[in-house]
Amino acid sequence: MLPSVTLVTRSLPGSSDFPVTAAMIAGTRHRVVVDTLIQPADMAPFAGATLVVYTHSDWDHCWGTAAFPGVPVIGHRVARERLTAPEAAEFLAQMRAKNPAAFAESQIIPPGLTFPHRLTIDAGGLTIDLHHLPGHTADSVVVHVPELGLLLAGDAVERPIPTLSEPGHIRQWAEELRRWSRAGVTHVVPGHGRPGGPELLAANAAYIDRLVEAAESGLAKGQSADEIAAELPLGALLPPGVVEQLPDYYREQHRLNIAQVVAELQAGR
Ligand SMILES: [Zn+2]
């Protein structure tokens, strides 16, 4: 069998315009699934997987793992902490109560194999390098396949803008994205949105940089997060005409992103 990469994209339940993507990388030794999406049925195209990798522990990336009974699951050690915490099971119960059809078969399966910085898998003819890249979440990981120039970025990269879920590593995140944009990667698959090339990495880094600059200068003038956001609308950061075509989600997320940058900068003062 020749090495291959297969992508599966699903819409999040209840939102036809918000896709999430998982992948299977097939080498001659291992068939490695990267993220398991929302429910086991999402994983039907990946039958026969021999390893599962999580890019992070958010629900839309890891609730379909029950499709692979007995298959080892690998993730960052913080992903294991988060998925074994009582809040994870409580959140699934809440989501299932709201939408039983979408989440009846979803299960939380924490990674049994964890790592702190980097882990390399020899899939047979393909190397699968997992790199911790905190930012979107503290447990975020990107998956590099050097032979293919491929980076499966999880939610470390999104099109058109990244989601800054939590403060703590935001500036480091932009630096790492810039480093990856110069690392010879030719194909970038974001967790949400259409795949592209290294320009996606550079664009997400530039977006984060603009938010950090705006937040620094706003805080120096004594502005609140809302005042900083009012002076930096999303339309000003994207090519002309793009923002009008986006779901409302991104305008709201942009405002939340600015609040997270402000929280990170204030914590560092
Ligand atoms: Zn996501």
Summarize the structure.
With 269 residues, this protein is of the alpha/beta class. Helix content is 33%, strand content 23%.
Corresponding CATH superfamily of the domain at 4-148:
Ribonuclease Z/Hydroxyacylglutathione hydrolase-like
Order of adjacent strands in the largest pleated sheet: 1-2-3-4-5-6
What is the first-to-last residue Cα distance? 55 Å
Low-pLDDT regions: none
- Overall average pLDDT: 95
Count of DSSP-assigned helices: 8
Assigned CATH class of the domain at 4-148: Alpha Beta
Q: Determine the fraction of residues in helical runs and give it as a percent range.
A: 25-40%
Largest sheet: 6 strands, mixed
Q: DSSP strand (E) fraction?
A: 15-25%
Tell me the CATH architecture of the domain at 4-148: 4-Layer Sandwich
Specify the structural class.
Answer: alpha/beta
Radius of gyration from the CA trace? 18 Å
Compressed to H and E, one letter per element, the order equals EEEEHEHHHEEEEEHEHHH
**Number of DSSP-assigned strands:** 11
Q: Which compounds are bound in this model?
A: zinc ion
What is the CATH fold-level name of the domain at 4-148?
Metallo-beta-lactamase, Chain A
Oligomerization state: single chain
Descriptive account of the structure:
It is a single chain. The chain has 269 residues and is an alpha/beta fold. The protein has a domain at 4-148: 4-Layer Sandwich (Metallo-beta-lactamase, Chain A). The protein is 33% helix and 23% strand. The protein contains eight helices and eleven strands. It has helices at 59-62, 77-84, 86-98, 100-103, 170-181, 198-220, 225-230, 248-267; strands spanning 4-11, 19-26, 31-34, 51-53, 73-76, 113-115, 118-122, 127-132, 141-145, 150-158, 187-192. A six-stranded mixed beta sheet has the order 1-2-3-4-5-6. A five-stranded mixed beta sheet has the order 7-8-9-10-11, covered by helices on one side. Helix 5 (170-181) runs antiparallel to helix 6 (198-220) and helix 6 (198-220) packs across helix 8. It is globular. The termini are far apart. The mean pLDDT is 95. The site of zinc ion has 7 residues, from helix 1 and strand 11.
